[in-house]
Amino acid sequence: MRRAIAIGFVGLVLAACHPPVSPEVLREWQTRSLYTCCNLHYEGTEINDANYFVGSTLPFGSPATVEKMTNDSITFHAGSTVLTLVHSFGRDQESSQQFFSKILVDTDPHIRFATFTKMAQAAIQDGRVERGMTKEQVIMSLGYPPTHRTASTDLNSWTYWYNRWVTYTVTFNDKGLVDTIIGNAPTKNEVIAQPTPVPPPPVRSIHKKK
């Protein structure tokens, strides 16, 4: 009897710590066509915003359907994979809804992926970071750097967790391209050349005859 009461009390405490969102908010998420923004790594059924690199990979652009949501977690399935994403560490930098909206997006990232160089595409598919990649490409490959270590992606130095004990750093130059990779990072240190922008054709002025 005492054990049953204790278990019930623990359940109430956990429910109070993770109250569900309103039905309206849940419905809004459940009726959207969503995709994973980037490669997501997981070792079990729960992942968090520390974004550890180790584990299995759910590829970027995987169609995702939301099942349930609390004030700091969202459970979704992508194919046969069911994951609960918990906003644990970066609550001082962004709201949980903002964090969820970064990870589960409305536009399939494959559209942007198709415009990248072949080397950048290969790095993203392998979950690597290489010199010369853009910030957008690094996010698609590695996910977002945890905001409790990198407050904004506008910064040119991003810190990632490889696992629960080891971090690595990706730095960008003034052009927003990866310049240096420090630590135990998933990389071959290949240089990725970005395509040369093609200037638009000159606009011909038309003069009307007088």
What does this structure look like?
The chain folds into two domains: 86 residues, no CATH class; 72 residues, Beta-lactamase Inhibitory Protein, Chain:B, domain 1. It is 25% helix and 24% strand. It has six helices and eleven strands. The strands form three sheets. The chain has a six-stranded mixed beta sheet with strand order 3-7-6-5-1-8. The chain starts with a helix and ends in a 27-residue tail after the last strand. About 6% of the residues have low confidence.
Outline:
The protein is built from six helices and eleven strands.
What attributes does this structure have?
six-stranded mixed β-sheet, Beta-lactamase Inhibitory Protein, Chain:B, domain 1, 210 residues, globular, alpha+beta, three-stranded antiparallel β-sheet
Let me know the average pLDDT: 90
What proportion of the residues form beta strands (DSSP E)? 15-25%
Side-by-side strand order of the widest sheet: 3-7-6-5-1-8
Major beta-sheet overview: 6 strands, mixed
Tell me the overall shape.
Answer: globular
Structural class: alpha+beta
Number of helices: 6
Intertermini distance:
101 Å
Uncertain parts: 4-15
Strand count: 11
Oligomer: single chain
**Into which percent range does the helicity of residues fall?**
25-40%
- Report the radius of gyration as a whole number of Å: 21 Å
**Could you say how many structural domains there are in total?**
2
Please write the string of helix (H) and strand (E) elements.
Answer: HHEEEEEEEHEHHHEEE
